[in-house]
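Lab notebook, page 48
Experiment: co-folding of the full assembly
Goal: obtain a model of how the components sit together before planning crosslinking
Operator: M.T.
Materials (sequences as entered):
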Amino acid sequence: MLPDISNRINNLSKALETVIMPAIPTDNSFAAEQAALMLGHLKMLDQQWDFAYLYEKGSFDNMLALATRLQQLTMGGTESKGAAAQIGALLASLPEILPLTVNTVNDLTKSLGAAVDKLIAAAYKDGSAEFKVVMLNSVLDYNHIQCTRERTWFKANNLDPDVRDLPSMDEMLSSEKFSYFAACDAS
Amino acid sequence: MDMKISEISNTLIEPRMAYILERKLRRSKLGPYKPKTAAEIEQSLKQLFEAEGMSEIAISGVKRMTGGASKEQFLFQLQHSGLAAPQGYVLRMDPLEGIVETCRLREAELLQALAGSFPVPEILTVDAEGGLLGSPGLITGFVSGVTKPTSQESQSVSGIGSSYGHYAELIAPQFLDILVRLHAWQGWTGASLPNYVIPKRNSTEAALYQVNLWAQTWRQDCVEPVPMITLTQHWLRENAPVCEEPCLVHCDYRVGNFMFEEPSGQITTILDWELAHFGDFHEDLAWILQKLFGTWNAQGKFLVCGLMEREKFISEYQRLSGREIKPDVLRYYEVLNAWKCAIMNLSSAIIAGQRANNHQDLLITWLGSAGAVFLDQIEMLIREELPNVA
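Observation: model returned without errors.
Model output:
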């Protein structure tokens, strides 16, 4: 791919920084602010684009692990069992080989997430007390790992007060420490 | 949870806010939104002031204000037959949708009620439905001051993460004093606030009104499912605390939302009352304590809103107010507030950016990327609440 994506993003940033931003009149602070935000987004995109598929696949794996775990452990009344059955059907319908684009993998994650949401709502209606504890623990554990991944993915936004506690992008994407799928597999 | 109670609690939503969310659905289809030009604003203002009965109207110096992730704001000078000299005003107008959906009419009612008792901007007029301005808008008097020290102006666009340097010591006591007085304010009993609902005393209504409002926001704006958001909603319903005595809460009382003068450090105005409602005072405290609004000082200590350490904030509030802060209720509202912020960031901000319906699409998309910070916070707080969960 020539010119490659990094090259083009960096050219966009350079044009913005060296030509367009200096040309903005000093009294147009709205335009200056928008340009600064554009530059920030471009720099973050440059750090992310090459890892986007890996990131989305990791998110899918984690949601898949959560859905599978909750579906296997569901105990309760008809609403809970019905929601678990829907997850079961969804899991059975997943393709054997994952699609190859970021958006199509994200679509699968969303459909699993919607089914998990239904099970959570159902469990608060007629889930057993034991299952509700398991569910709470599972969602908290999943959330911890997935949140750390997402905060790392977006750490260049400078909005995270605990940014110094986050791993590097490489570590987040490659270490099993940041995979709920691996954590469930191990237990 | 008892189904009957659940059904009843789901109906608790302030009627005006239910209308505002429904109106947002309709307005969101009118996009994409194009930021207004100074000429368009001038024309709209003229129409509004003519309808208000003003004559010999002259509008000048229309200038967009930067920052602000929810409302489009403009400064301008107004002259008319009733004024001896031109005066400065601020127009706050709703884009088609933003990171948070609120009501200019409620804001105007409240500012009117608070005038004279608290440092709030003076109301000139309100166009609640945007019939004349093109979008709902509120016009207030211009107040001098800065929201962050001018020596540190480049820190951020929304005030988040700002630090006050030597001004912290000057501002912190005033910040606390105004908060304490606000929670003790009884002026609402005689004020005209028809678009507010006061939750019942000694009930869980204060919490449930908020849970229902934000649950409805999530339903409307959800872009993709987030299990932690769904789980937290149910957790909040099951654990709603009783509020003995609801009071007025600002609910966005933080760094960036007050102005002060330099070099005195005197607070001149409290801004952004759009999220204010009647509820539990712990809700305000929990909002102020959020990590996103704080900073680390040179000694490595975390400062609440860049002003003071958490323990000092809590002990001083208790001392000045005579109120007892209940740790479990404070934690509940910390969860509620982090959940609200996660909803703003992960649904309302993202969907407004996707539909290009805001004047600050780039900014709200940027802020949206902080959603996981709040999810992380919720998880930590719920684990603290339930030690057996860890």
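Interpretation: Chain B has twelve helices and twelve strands.
Next step: discuss with group before ordering constructs.
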